[in-house]
Amino acid sequence: MPVRLIATDLDGTLLAPDLSVSRRTRRALDAVRAAGIDVVPVTARQPIGLREIAVDAGFTGWALCGNGARAYHLDRGETLFEAYLTVAAQTELARALLDVVPDVVFVSVRQGGEQFVAQEGYADLAEFADHKRDPATMGAVSLAEVLAEPSLKLVVRRPGIDNDELVATIRGLGVTGFEVTHSGAPFVEVLAEGVTKAWGLARLCTHLGLTPADVLAFGDAPNDAEMLAWAGRGIAVANAAPVTREAADEITAANDEDGVAAVLEAVLRE
Length: 270
Known about the structure:
Layout: E1 5-8, H1 10-14, H2 23-34, E2 38-41, H3 47-57, E3 62-65, E4 70-73, E5 79-82, H4 87-100, E6 105-110, E7 115-118, H5 122-125, H6 128-131, H7 143-146, E8 153-157, H8 163-171, E9 178-181, E10 188-192, H9 197-208, E11 215-219, H10 225-230, E12 233-237, H11 242-247, E13 250-252, H12 259-269
Parallel strand pairs: 1-2, 1-11, 11-12, 12-13
Antiparallel strand pairs: 3-4, 4-5, 6-7, 6-8, 8-10, 9-10
Helix pairs in contact: 2-12
Protein name: HAD family phosphatase
Organism: Ruania alkalisoli
GO molecular function: magnesium ion binding; phosphatase activity
């Protein structure tokens, strides 16, 4: 079946290492859109971190933010769906994790991804690139305040612990009601139970009348693995994490070699 929708991760996949959209990639994106193929960014970023990239890449339609937790229309400002981690689930997780890793800190990203509620001490660990936010604007509140409302994404951070190790620790706590992953940034991300990029993409495709066979997906990080496995054709860039490469049907060139653009150009020749 011909490709009808392209779903692509951004950081480490579509974007160059300096977070730009190369001229070759922009030409390829414009060409597939001109051929009638939808292109949907599927990212851990929230809208605040997507807006500038959307201009550079020419994204104007649906985007999946927060690892698939929110479907947001970039031009219309419309939200198709949102999925929130409950207060009960995030509170139980935090209490259990603090027993094992006492100096871990948290952020609640909520209100459609527009509100960033950081625990005391979090901003001292952060750089602008981490969340596309100035750490000076992050504030500092008690853990109780961080956990007081449902989160579109709960950020968990503890310098000195590898992301994969922290994910494994959280999964081994013996508590339920959430999903946990990471995107290669210096923290891990906890979502509502069942929520992954694949979950969000499946919901959006149902809304659009599409099936997995209609979808070509690209990714690099562990949070992309389920999406690549779900899509009819999943492609990992050469710099992808091992788990993501294993989930993919194919491997293309790395993000710094326009790997996504190379595949899009080939799609147009098919």
